[in-house]
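Moderator note: this is an archived Q&A kept for reference. The question asked for a predicted structure of one protein chain; the sequence and the answer are reproduced below.
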Amino acid sequence: MIQIIPAIDLRDGAVVRLIQGDYARQVSYSWTPADAARHWRDLGAELIHVVDLDGARLGEPQGSSLRALEAIAGATDAAIEWGGGIRNAASARRALDAGAARVVLGTAAACDDDAATAMLTDLAERVVIGIDARDGRVAIKGWTQVLDMTAEDLARRMRTMGARRFIYTDIAQDGMLTGPNLAALRTFCAAVDAPVIASGGVASASHITGLVALGVPNLEGAIVGKALYDGATDYAGLDAAARAPQGSSQEGRNA
């Protein structure tokens, strides 16, 4: 079984989605952040993934997003996973104090070994390493820069520094509703002996079936955003597919 994790992306405190990480290609939604979180929790979500898009680009959590985080935490008892602008312990603490259960370290993991080591040491399980990849290379600063470093190399380095959990995002699939990159995800999961959460491309129960059928023991969850908001799929259907036995789909075995 893998866990279905609804996403809430924030910009100026409002719920939005970016297509392939492009800030000029934004889709806005009418729900407030608190209403969105309450909706997903009512359907059974135990963990909600929240991203401060402004913070990711500007390098620190933004006030409007932190206020939205406080509203989300006050509206639901679901655990909140928070990312965007977490570059050091101080920014992590601001998010944790506002209601996050754990924070996602992305750019700092790739660019600042000292900050990453300190946070992994001090916060342990409350830090998730987020690795975003464009054509297999690590993208940072809200996906605006691409490094000459593979996602797997960064993951292995972070694991030696104490990372306990990873989120892997294939940027080319994000927001496109065409399914996750199963081959890339399998390769990434094989690179680390730690739990991995997939992000990007999930738009149907069949996509979740494909993830489950990979039979990868450390694949623990899938973040889903645009498909849920646009009605391309529903939480109940995704959750049912996620609970199916591993290795039961030919689609996953042939990916």
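Archived answer notes: The first strand starts at residue 3 and ends at 11.
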